[in-house]
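Attaching the record inline, Q. Sequence:
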Amino acid sequence: MKSLQLNVFPCVPPQVDLLTGRFDAENLQYKSTCIRDLVGIFRDESARQLLPDSLEVYRVEILVSPQQEGELLAGTTHLMPGKVGDEFFMTRGHFHQRREQAEFYFGLRGCGILLLQPEAAPAYSELVFAGSVHHIPSFTAHRLVNTGNDILSALAVWPAMAGHDYQALQPEGFSLRVYDREDGVFLEAANV
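Structure, as predicted:
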């Protein structure tokens, strides 16, 4: 019996640079969030209004996958260094629309804090740095805060059907805020 020999070459899959979080892929989705998009997110609204509307606070690149049950999405958030008043730049933060869906973050570069706010427990935080791994449990809102002088990049993997619920945190927002004070980075309960 003759063996059949096929000349099949493997395809090259999408790639991610683990130093920067940038994807090399044909089908990417990009989203940029500027200071004008973050009304009501920072404590000092008048300080936010003094910044240029088009100032980019963060951008996200997502490796496009099918939006169906059982699929996963992967994306990188690139959070710029900066402050609004004395409050560090941060993402809007969100719960998942499907609250039971968890997520993983992987710190790639820069330094910062991941704020985690469970629905039925006190908020807490974790340091984010190159090589850090963060499990974001179900029923937990999450937000990245850049406390450094360089871009903070974190790779995320989450269920495609999880969705984002930004409104659940409004108008109160997260119960913890992160400030730059004379003696360093300071976490403070909101509305203090």
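The radius of gyration is 19 Å. The chain is about 5% helix and 45% strand.

More tomorrow.
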